[in-house]
């Protein structure tokens, strides 16, 4: 039976790499799919991995109706054996409903990939709806690590290495951004709560202890 599957994890856990692997495996067997993404780090219309792999994809806007788009492709004589939706956390809840309808009414597998929570540890609306509707939710087994070596469970937004907890939910960036740029870092829950990024930890370790003065 066709399924709606949500592959989820923190940033840097290999979700886009897995999306590309699924696309490769199915295309190698002669299957044809439609690949969607939104706000990929490589720019519009790209599904890319930090390993350097990439493929062309359909850039999703808020007004794109997945069900209508797939039906139009089929009506035009195209073949759609599966759908891949990367950066699914940025999709709207109605778009997640449309993906579920693609599975139920068109009997097409849908594989959605995304992070679950934002930099404030709050659920993205798209991810929340996927958890509510998906036939399966798969937590990716490639564990991203906090700077301390523990399993990373939270995404932190940083500016100049300092964690920030205010701002728009969606700001495009990537891990390990230098200087004053907006970037992201994965942290364990303990260090996310303490706002202790790798840069802050290094600064604390390098700070000399105050010596007593006679």
TrEMBL record:
UniProt name for this protein: Thymidine kinase
Top EC group: transferase
Entry keywords, A to Z: ATP-binding, Cytoplasm, DNA synthesis, Kinase, Nucleotide-binding, Transferase
EC numbers, comma separated: 2.7.1.21
Record Gene3D superfamilies: 3.30.60.20, P-loop containing nucleotide triphosphate hydrolases
Organism listed in the record: Streptomyces javensis
Main location: cytoplasm
Subunit structure: Homotetramer.
HAMAP family, per database record: Thymidine_kinase
Active site per database record: 87 (proton acceptor)
Reaction catalysis annotation: thymidine + ATP = dTMP + ADP + H(+)
GO MF assignments: kinase activity
């Amino acid at each position: 039976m066709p399924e709606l599957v949500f592959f989820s994890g923190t940033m840097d856990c290999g979700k886009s790499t897995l999306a590309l692997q699924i696309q490769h495996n199915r295309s190698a067997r002669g299957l044809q799919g439609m690949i969607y993404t939104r706000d990929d780090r490589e720019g519009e219309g790209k599904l890319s991995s930090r390993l350097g792999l990439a493929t062309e994809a359909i850039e999703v806007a808020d007004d794109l109706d997945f069900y209508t788009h797939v039906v139009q492709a089929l009506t035009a004589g195209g073949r759609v054996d599966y759908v891949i939706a990367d950066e699914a956390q940025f999709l709207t809840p109605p778009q997640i409903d449309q993906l579920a309808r693609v599975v139920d009414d068109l009997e097409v597998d849908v594989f959605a990939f995304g992070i679950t929570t934002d930099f404030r540890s709050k659920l993205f609306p798209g991810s929340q709806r996927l958890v509510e509707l998906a036939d399966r939710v798969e937590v990716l087994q490639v564990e991203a690590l906090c700077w301390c070596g523990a399993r990373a469970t939270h995404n932190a937004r940083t500016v100049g290495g300092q964690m920030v907890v205010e701002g728009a939910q969606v700001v495009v960036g990537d891990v390990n951004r230098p200087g004053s740029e907006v970037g992201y870092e994965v942290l364990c829950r303990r260090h996310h709560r303490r706002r202790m990024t790798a840069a802050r930890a290094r600064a604390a370790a390098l700070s000399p202890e105050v010596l007593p003065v006679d």
